[in-house]
């Protein structure tokens, strides 16, 4: 094994899965991924990621088991009934009333798992519109990344336990029962379209009136949640409705969605005035876009020729633009455009930008910093004037422009002048110190506010973790219930077989006794009880030759030993006394018991037939 493989980490495992199967789990919460992967490795009794990667390479079918473990498909019909009641009585009627009578209604069920939620939406709209109008107007797009769950959803057939929460009238109206399963009606099923869609990587469905994505976002980290919500914002119509799960609050995304019923997690889209603004919200890589035209090329060339180094940082923290002088001065490359500026040296060198950009986002006022000392890559000490200006369009902050002006020569001249104005410079420095103290105080207040926001987000994250663990326990409980049902069914079948066998043994009219190789009684039928007066509870487990019955059992020993050696067809007629004290002649037949027909005798069968004395 190479050194690289010996240092295999979870990140390398996830990268291996992404490269080989196209599933990108890096946006999922770290603790959830670690817990689910550890669960799967524990089931295989593997202790390291190296061993698990080897197992995946040797057993490609393991990928499906891994995906089923990570993608927790806990769902149900009318889950959280209060939310569905509110949708049926308020949200859906308002949605229909705001549209023309024949207008199409488009619904997206994102993260639909095995389809229960998508069919629940279908039932709500079918009740509100009537079945004919429902088929004419409504299209429900149900998506997930789990192909196995989607296959179950496409069939639309569920066990009785799965439909327990469906109201009785809806069950009779929308489902057809066959072979102990309930199947969603085929004619209504045409309105529900199932397909694979990765919320993180794939393009969103557009022009959506109602978007239902419940208990899915909580599995992603904060950065991925933000990216998915921007896609949801783009997907929804201006008056579209977003429905989330009970653990998803959107506290930090008030610029995208506003709550209309926070208790039931129902949100409306914050409307953007133009399509350009909608696209800008969705975009995660501001460096990508349509091919530039001649005017764009001219502007970019002129921008590169400006004498001052300038960097434009988008609102989401990514580098949107950097002119040629800035790239050379700060060591940036074309690949750095589109990256988060926090990951680059310019976030703190030559001047700290992070806190100041946050302050600009608050008060939208420019910030100027003069005389910033900076050692250039060439080793020369330089002095810079840094100016940060907010970029605002139609009242909305788009980003911040940071300009670095080389003031080394100017500072040198000012230094000569300062020598003759030392007193005035001292007073200026004291004033500057006061300003810096005020800035420091302002930054401390900003830091305190950020800590409060962080604490709130941590509480939200903890709540989502608890909800995730609860669904995992629910999934495990359902598996145990299924196993218990199967075990109970097999017990019933075994009891039926035993009763049937007992009936046969009693009906043939012979006393039948089954012995093991040690001649202990294993079976004692009802005719044996009638003949000798002892019940099966009295004799089972007892040695045959030690039983006190009216048959001289000791005389059977030679015949029994011969049968144990494989000599079949042994018979013997003995004088005996039945349970009523009547003297009889008893014909005893002995056969060897060899279940596998391989000559190995595992027991004996005695048949005793009374004859007149």
Which helices and strands, and how do they pair?
Layout: H1 3-6, H2 10-21, H3 30-43, H4 49-58, H5 62-70, H6 81-97, E1 105-110, H7 116-129, H8 131-137, E2 138-144, H9 147-155, E3 157-159, H10 168-174, E4 175-178, E5 181-184, H11 186-189, E6 192-196, E7 208-213, H12 222-235, E8 236-244, E9 257-261, E10 266-269, H13 275-282, H14 294-304, E11 309-314, E12 319-322, H15 324-330, H16 354-363, E13 367-375, E14 381-393, E15 396-406, H17 408-419, H18 422-507, E16 511-516, E17 521-524, H19 526-532, H20 536-539, H21 557-564, E18 570-577, E19 583-593, E20 603-612
Parallel strand pairs: 1-2, 1-7, 2-6, 7-8
Antiparallel strand pairs: 3-5, 4-5, 8-10, 9-10, 11-12, 11-15, 13-14, 14-15, 16-17, 16-20, 18-19, 19-20
Helix pairs in contact: 3-5, 7-8, 12-13
What does this molecule look like?
- With 613 residues, this protein is α+β, with helices and mostly antiparallel strands.
- The protein has five domains: 3-70, Orthogonal Bundle (Chemotaxis Receptor Methyltransferase Cher, domain 1), CATH 1.10.155; 81-281, Rossmann fold; 285-420, 2-Layer Sandwich (Beta-Lactamase); 421-504; 508-612, 2-Layer Sandwich (Beta-Lactamase).
- Helices cover 45% and strands 22% of the residues.
- The protein contains 21 helices and 20 strands.
- A seven-stranded mixed β-sheet has the order 6-2-1-7-8-10-9. A five-stranded antiparallel β-sheet has the order 12-11-15-14-13, with helices on both faces.
- A hairpin with a 2-residue loop joins strand 4 and strand 5.
- The radius of gyration is 40 Å and the shape is elongated.
């Amino acid at each position: 094994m190479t050194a690289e493989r010996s240092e295999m980490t979870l990140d390398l495992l996830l990268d291996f899965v992404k490269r080989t199967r196209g599933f990108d789990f890096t946006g999922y919460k770290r603790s959830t991924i670690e817990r689910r992967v550890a669960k799967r490795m524990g089931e295989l009794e593997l202790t390291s990621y190296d061993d698990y990667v080897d197992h995946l390479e040797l057993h490609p079918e393991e990928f499906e088991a891994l995906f089923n473990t990570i993608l927790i498909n806990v769902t149900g019909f009318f889950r959280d009934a209060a939310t569905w009641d509110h949708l049926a009585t308020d949200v859906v009627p308002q949605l229909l009333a705001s549209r023309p009578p024949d207008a199409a209604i488009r619904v997206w069920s994102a993260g639909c798992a095995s389809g229960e939620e998508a069919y629940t939406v279908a039932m709500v709209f079918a009740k509100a519109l009537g079945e004919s109008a429902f088929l004419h107007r409504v299209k429900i797009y149900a998506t997930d990344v789990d192909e196995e769950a989607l296959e179950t959803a496409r069939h639309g057939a569920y066990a009785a336990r799965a439909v327990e929460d469906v109201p009785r009238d809806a069950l009779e109206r929308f489902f057809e029962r066959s072979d102990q399963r309930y199947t969603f009606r085929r004619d209504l099923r045409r309105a529900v379209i199932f397909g694979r869609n990765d919320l993180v990587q794939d393009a969103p469905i557009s022009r959506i009136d109602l978007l239902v994505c419940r208990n899915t976002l909580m599995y992603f980290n904060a950065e991925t949640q933000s990216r998915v919500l921007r896609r949801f914002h783009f997907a929804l119509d201006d008056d579209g409705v977003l429905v989330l799960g009970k653990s998803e609050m959107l506290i930090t995304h008030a610029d995208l969605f506003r709550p209309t019923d926070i208790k039931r997690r129902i949100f409306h889209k914050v409307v953007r005035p133009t399509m350009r603004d909608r696209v800008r919200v969705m975009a995660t890589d501001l460096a990508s876009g349509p091919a530039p035209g001649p005017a764009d090329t001219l502007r970019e060339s002129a921008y590169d020729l400006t004498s001052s180094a300038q960097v434009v940082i988008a609102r989401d923290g990514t580098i949107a633009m950097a002119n040629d002088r800035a790239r050379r001065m700060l060591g940036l490359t074309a690949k750095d455009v589109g990256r988060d500026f926090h990951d680059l040296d310019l976030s703190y060198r030559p001047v700290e930008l992070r806190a100041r950009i946050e302050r600009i986002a608050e008060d939208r006022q420019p910030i100027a910093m003069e005389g910033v000392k900076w050692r250039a890559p060439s080793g020369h000490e330089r002095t810079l004037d840094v100016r940060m200006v907010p970029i605002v369009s139609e009242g909305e902050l788009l980003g911040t422009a940071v300009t670095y002006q080389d003031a080394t020569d100017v500072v040198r001249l000012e230094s000569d002048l300062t020598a003759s104005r030392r007193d005035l410079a001292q007073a200026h420095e004291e004033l500057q110190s006061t300003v810096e103290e005020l800035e420091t105080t302002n930054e401390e207040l900003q830091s305190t506010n950020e800590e409060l926001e962080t604490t709130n987000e941590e509480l939200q994250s903890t709540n989502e973790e608890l909800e995730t663990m609860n669904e995992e326990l629910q999934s495990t409980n359902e598996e145990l219930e299924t196993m218990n049902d199967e075990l109970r069914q097999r017990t019933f079948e075994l009891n039926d077989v035993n009763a049937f066998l007992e009936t046969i043994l009693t009906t043939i009219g012979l006393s039948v006794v089954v012995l093991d190789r040690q001649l202990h009684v294993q079976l004692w039928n009802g005719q044996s009880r009638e003949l000798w007066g002892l019940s099966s509870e009295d004799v089972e487990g007892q040695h045959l030759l030690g039983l006190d019955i009216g048959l001289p059992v000791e005389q059977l020993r030679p015949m029994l030993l011969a049968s144990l050696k494989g000599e079949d067809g042994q018979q013997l007629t003995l004088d005996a006394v039945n349970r009523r004290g009547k003297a009889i002649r008893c014909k005893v037949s002995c056969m060897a018991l060899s279940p596998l027909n391989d000559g190995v005798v595992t027991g004996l069968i005695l048949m005793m037939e009374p004859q007149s004395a």
